[in-house]
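pasting for ref
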Amino acid sequence: MTSLRPFHAMDVFKFNPTNLDPLTETYDLNFYFSYIARWPHLFNVAEGQDGTIDAYIMGKLESSPIYAQFSPHYLPFHAHITALTVAPHARRLGLARTLSQSLERSGDEYDAWFVDLFVRKSNQIAQKLYKGMGYSVYRRVVDYYSDDPTDKTKDGEDAYDMRKPLRRDKTRKHVREKGEEFAVQPEDVW
């Protein structure tokens, strides 16, 4: 049986098998530790009976900086899924849905407008999962993912910024139709 618990600092030594998926973004250790320090209640793991990390979610609560409040790209207070990954042996068990719902509940508790995340345009499986949970594409971020940051001549891959409105957004003003057609540059995204 899998149990949910907060991510602990020592988990960085146990989550490599979960991160080996080519579509999982892997970060440096300081990045993981900054989430433990700033949003420990939004960084959770699904742990198997044998102590393996079957899945984890890194979440945060944020908004655009105040100086950007009049920008067309301004983001009001919202929850964000920075990373959500499930180990290959634990897929199709509902762990991604369970972890996402935990962040959505936290977003509602903090009166956030929506939950958002970025997903590679080529990751059809993840897009289908999120659409099935009520997310929709808000915008396309051109060349958001750079697989070779040392070579600026190589194109990156576009990302979809997907959103799910939360309880506060009763009129759904922070989602849009046909978001795939609304292109922005990476510098427009905070």
